[in-house]
Amino acid sequence: MNHPQQAVDVKSFIDGRSLSAKQVLIVVLCFFIVAADGIDVAMMGFIAPSIVHDWQLAKSTFGVVMSAAPLGLVLGALIAGPSSDRLGRKAVLVVSVLLFGIGSIVTALSQDVTQMMVLRFLTGIGLGAAMPNTTILVAEYVPQRRRSLLITTMFIGFGVGSALVGFAAGWLVPRYGWRSVVIFGGIVPLALVPFLIVALPESVRFMLVRNRPMEQIVATLQRVCHCTFAPGTRLFAPEPAVSHARPAAILFEQGYRVTTVSLWVTYFMGLLVIYLITGWLPMLIKDAGMSIEQAANITAMFQTGGIAGAILAGWAMDRLRPVPVIAAAYIGGALCVYAVGSAGAQSTSLSLWMFAAGFFMNGAQTGLNAFAPVCYPTVARATGVSWMLAFGRFGSIVGSASGGLLIGLGYNFGALVGMLAVPAVLAGLAITASLLSRNSARDQVDTTSTAEQT
Length: 454
Known about the structure:
The protein is mostly helical. Helix content is 76%, strand content 1%. The chain has a single domain (10-229, 246-446), classed as Growth Hormone, Chain: A. The chain has helices at residues 10-15, 21-55, 59-87, 89-107, 113-139, 147-176, 178-199, 204-209, 214-225, 247-250, 257-287, 292-317, 322-343, 350-371, 378-408, 413-418, 421-432, 441-446; strands at 7-9, 234-236. It is globular, with a radius of gyration of 22 Å. The two termini are 23 Å apart. One of its GO terms (molecular function) is carboxylic acid transmembrane transporter activity. Pfam families: MFS_1.
C-alpha cells in the first residue's frame, strides 16, 4: 500500500512542541560539559598562589602559564567550527571533552613552568572545541520561544563549575596541595564521555544540510522528540540563501558582516574582564592580607552571581530584543566592577559587589552565547559561533597575561579592578553596533520559508 508523502519543516515542528525528556537530557548533558569547562578555566586562578609559592616564581612569569590555555582555546575553536560544520556536532564534541579531560590529568604531573605551559595549551585545544558545539546542539534542538533561557541555563554550568572549583580549591589545597585540584578538573569531563557517546544525538538540521539518508534523519528526530512519523515522511529545514559554499566566507557576506565583527569585539571585551578577575583576583586579595581560602571564596561570588544573571538574561532575551538586553547587562557590569575596585580588598561589602559584578558580566556574556547561534545559517553556524569564541579568547589571553604584568608594575587592587569598567562599557557599545546591520542575520536565519520544497 502506498502512503502519501508528508513533508515536515524540522524547525517549525520543534518550535510547535513541548520539550521531550530527550531534549531535556541534551540540555543537561551540555550543562555538565560547560560545568567541566568552567572548572578547568577557573581552577588556575585558585591554585596560582600555591604554584607561585612552591616553584618560587614571579607573578609575571606565571602569567605566561595563565595565558597558555586561552591560546589553546583559540586554536581549538578555529579548528572546531569548520570541523563541526563538516563532520558533525556530536563527533567533535565527544573528542574535545575527552581531550581536555586527559590534558588536565596530565597537567597535574607538571614539574616546571614549561611543562605546565605546554600541557595547558593542549588542554585548551579541547576546551575551545567543546564550548561552541554545546551551544549549537542545544540551539538546534530546542523551541525558539525558550531557546535563550535554555542556552543561558546550560551556561550556568560554567558558573557552577567555576564556583565549585573555587570552594573545592579552598578545601583541597591546604590538605592535598594544588595538584589535587587539577586532577579533580580532569576527572569530571572524563566521567562524562561514556554518557555523551550513548545519549547525545547528532543535529538533525546538520544532517539535512549534509544530505544524510532521510531514514536516518527521521529516526533521529523521532527518538529525540518521542514521536512517530508516517512512512515516507520527508523532513526539510528552510535556510537563507548564501553566496559562498565555504562557511568562513559566509560570515562576511552582506547581512552577516556587521554582526560578525560586533560579536567578535563584544566577546573579546567581555572575556578580558572575566579572565582578569577570575585569574588574578584571588592573588590580589591574598596579597591584601587574607587567607587563600578567603580569597577563593570571595572570588567564587563572582561566578555565583553569574548564575542568577544568566537565568535573568535568558528569560529577558526570550521576551525582549536580545541586543538591548545584552548591552544593558554589560553597562551594569561596568558599574559594578568599578564599585569593586572602589570598595577595596578589605571592604566588608566586597563579596556583595563581586556577586553583583558577576550577575551582570556573566549574565551578559552568557546571553551573547545564546544570541550567536541564531545569527548564522546551519551550514555556517558552528564556524560562526566557534570563531566568535576564538577571537574572544584573545581577550582572555590579554586578561590573563596583563594581570601579572600590571601587578608587576605596581598596580594595586583598586586601580587594577576599577580600570576593567572600560572594556565592559566597550562590550556594551560593540553589541549595540550590531543593530546597524540593515539585514540582520538573525532575521534571515529565523525566517522560514512557507513554500514547499520539492
